[in-house]
Amino acid sequence: MGKRSHLEPTEQRPKKKSKSEKPAKASKDKQENGDEKTTSYSDASALSAIPQSEIDSFLTENVIKISDPSSPDASQFRPILSFDHLPKCDVGLYNQLKSFPAPTPIQSTTWPLLFAGRDVIGIAETGSGKTLGFGLPCLKKLIDSKSSKPSQPKAVIISPTRELAMQIYDQLVKFGHNEKTQVTCIYGGVGKDEQRRALQKAAIVVATPGRLKDLQSDGSIDLGKVNYLVLDEADRMLDKGFEQDIKDIVKPMPVSRRQTVMFTATWPRSVRDLAATFMKTPVTVTIGGDPSADPRANTRIKQVVEVVDGREKEGRLVQLLTKSQRGHQSPEKVLVFCLYKKEAMRIENLIRNKGFAVAGIHGDLNQSERFRNLDAFKKGNATVLIATDVAARGLDIPNVKLVINVTFPLTVEDYVHRIGRTGRAGAEGLAITMFTETDKGLSGGLINVLKAAKQDVPEDLLKFGTTVKKKQHDVYGAFYKDVDMDKTATKITFDD
Ligand SMILES: Nc1ncnc2c1ncn2[C@@H]1O[C@H](COP(=O)(O)OP(=O)(O)OP(=O)(O)O)[C@@H](O)[C@H]1O
Question: 10 Å Cβ neighbour count for 92?
Answer without folding.
Answer: 9
